[in-house]
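#struct-queue
[09:14] JT: dropping the first one here, sequence first, then the structure tokens:
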Amino acid sequence: MSRADDGSLRFGLFHAPFHSKRLNPTYALERDLLLTEHLDRLGFEEIWYGEHHSGGMEMIAAPELMVAAAAQRTKYIRLGTGVKSLPYHHPFMLAEAMAQLDHMTRGRAMFGVGPGALPSDAIMIGIPVGELRRRMEEGLDAIVALFKGETVTRKSEWFELHKARLSVGCFSKPMMELAVTTIRSPAGVVAAARHGAGLLTLGPMDDAVLDHHVANWRIYEDECQKHGHVADRSKWRITLMMHVAETREQAMADAAWGIREFNDYTHDVVPAPPGIPRDTVDLVGAALEKQVAIIGTPDDAIREIERVYNKLGGFGAVLLFGNDLAPWPAQCRSFELIAEFVKPHFARANVLRQASYDATARVIGEFRQTALTATTAATQAYQGKR
């Protein structure tokens, strides 16, 4: 696994997804799998699928089904639930399903968990919104114990376990990779640290929000130490909304295609306060000004990722925030440009090639003279024989 402390970064996609309400839903799900295949070919390291049950745009209800389907269509990319809302599921049944998925993917599956993002989901199934975080922590404690092979007996107000143990257990040892979502409050980092899990950090990337992330990381380090775990920055994943094109003008024109529908969704459905007023005329310009998104060229993306990386002190992976800001062909091209120019910058993939180029350029005059001398000598030798 790449480590944040050597400057290398993994790249992936956090795919809720945010699909236009105009898009054919059957095709949208197929397109999500096509995108996973595309990212696999491009060398992206991971993709995380969300779980939502209302709101219209975040339309994947069962991320584990996406993982199972995607595993059959890909070779290398790792596949995660981003995330399973633990209060909605009995922990034993969910642990059994994820352990099976770990075997079916030969260890490529990752288990991302959270309390549930949309209050409208919880209300439909009779869960008080104020209970979600506590229930997530209770469910997580039970699942981790089951993953470790323990026999678990415990009773809460919403689930019971009586000498429960997994029938098979995880393929990955000691257990499959686990990550917990965090946004602004420290609750997620405390839950993750208790079990040595990684962090999936969501939200915009302005300096004030990044300061909160820095503070939360310090809490994570302290809590990890309390529970005997190492706070590993390589397991810290940061989500960034991003669209790139060959020129800034093209990128901004692409993003203008879908940004208004996405901004309306942040006003109408998302519980967090919206970042951009609904009546803003230039939404793309506002997104750039408020540091909500990276919209520009690959060089712009490199500059902004480095800003976030340096502000946070390092992390392990950039997860692009999946949505329909741009038309589908432009989305595919954006991922291609990121794979072609942004990823290799942070992976230091071209260090040896550049060194070879520079070494040759320094002595090319000498090489040319040597080649000219050899050519002249060969010509003279030929003429002498004649």
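[09:21] JT: and here's the second one, same format:
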Amino acid sequence: MKIGVVGTGYVGLVSGTCFAEFGVDVCCVDKDKTKIDRLNKGEIPIYEPGLDDLVEKQVKAGRLTFTTDLKKAVKDADAVFIAVGTPSRKTDGHADLTYVFEAAREIIAAVEGYTVIVTKSTVPVGTAREIEKIVREMGREKDIDVCSNPEFLREGAAINDFMRPDRVVIGSSSERATEVMRALYRPLYLNETPMVVTTPETSEIIKYAANAFLATKITFINEIANLCEAAGANVQHVAKAIGLDGRIGSKFLNAGPGYGGSCFPKDTLALTQTGRKFGTPQKLVEAVVDVNADRQQQMAQKIVAACGGSVKGMKIGVLGIAFKPNTDDVRDAPSLVILPILQGLGAKVYAHDPIAKEQAEKVLKDIHWEEDPYAVAKDADALVIITEWNEYRALDLERIAGAMKQKRLIDLRNIYKPSEVEPHGFHYVSIGRPEIAPSEAAKKLRAV
């Protein structure tokens, strides 16, 4: 089989490469010539563990190619996947489908023979039907079908998620198109991966509902963390206990600075707008959006409070800028809200991130970048952990304490236990757990 993939961003590049691994001939197309030139040189424009090796393997096998020529990429394809961006519109929060419809028109004009157009991008309910209207307007309804096939890829674990998914969702009104999709995903079917075949409308809602539910779990445990702090309880114990309930599950119950990234913020916002459009307000998701926005503001104030109520003139060290580990993605990362607030209050911010510096420099200004966590801690008045990279999980706390001007550690991911931190004399602040001030024993230990 042969497919075309329009868009070589995160979803398009990962999906195209993994389909090639299945044995499908894949041609990825993008209008960005610089990006295509880089890909043809073996340079990967995004950070995703293992992707560079897999791309190299499939290019050498002749199953994966890159081009700016859309006609060449799709003319004789069995299916063409639309994997372009659907950012939130600044005016109203709706998903901007400009690139989706533009790609659809170009594909319809270019394909020859029977072809399935597949929306891989995250799109609001009704998008597949709108593309079907364009197909009819262009007189191609006899040889083009339209499907919805949402992605459920986690940044940092995308290859495994594609190769070993929890489920594959296909939204189709055509049995012929459904069989094409089944054939493409046949390797997963042989592994007994559940395949949900439904209508395009249902498929489109599934994607938004899944992300909104996960965002709700994150927001819920953050609200509980606030209650735990006020009541002197431990949110990690609460999360463990409720997560052991099979009806709830333990995933996405880690309290922190709020969700970010390329999916949850825009998808929750888009779902609220879709609900209003259909006269069915999604009040729970609307609350999630509002609470998460407040959460990131609260984290900045939490840091200020830990510093005695003011950060003016202070050096604040920050570990982790990306919205999560194992990615360089800083889109809607909590750090993008927290750090400018601290700077606006007069703090000097020094930071380290293993991967995301290049992307962060495009959106964060006046950050002093350091090569390692210990350089960040040197003479710092406070050290803040925002992203739970593995590199930060086993720091030499004695060395960190000795380097700092003031021993304040604000752990917004709860990656340390208070008992690990206390002996080093830190004023330790975490999420949903009682604060730990240097004990008399710790002070004596430090004096020895």
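[09:30] RK: nice, looked through the second one.
[09:31] RK: The CA atoms of residues 322 and 406 lie 26 Å apart.
[09:31] JT: good to know. Residues 2-197 form a domain with the Rossmann fold fold (CATH 3.40.50.720).
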